Amino acid sequence: MTREPLDRLLATVSDEELESLRDAILREEGRRRLQLNLVIEAPFPPLVREESDRAESVVERWARLITWLAKDAAFPPAGGKRGVSICFTYAGESPDVHEAGIIIQQALVQAGLLLGRTPEWMDATTTQAQHADDDQRATVRIQMWDKPDYAPWHELRDE
After folding, report:
1. Of 45, 52, 115, 157, which sits most exposed with the smallest number of CB within 10 A?
2. How many CB atoms lie within 10 A of CB 48?
3. What is the pLDDT of residues 35-69, one digit of tens each?
């Protein structure tokens, strides 16, 4: 089998486009290989840091809750890179999705379910928020999966 058509295709595709395609493929693979699916219904710890409280206390409360739920689900601590998807369903006012996502990610690190919040340890991360239906309670859905080891694109092209 010749690689000539592949080489011609790669010559016209930017590295950013390849990375984007890789991320989309890995996200889909992660969804198919879903290992942890936590749905935490209200009441749960706040999704904002409280000024009157220690800055880390909210993260610590989330970490204790997530640790307990992960152990109950027999989900092991992180041993490598993981994909994470977080979805907030809110009944009242919309949370600050960015800040709430950071709190949950920090709690996942503290719980040992992620080794870190950098791209080296966490990939295919999505954070979404949606308004709850009238009969639905506020929830936080956390989905996690182990990421396969891969070689960077430039190493694959040099072969």
Report:
1. 52
2. 12
3. 788 889 888 888 887 765 565 689 999 999 999 99
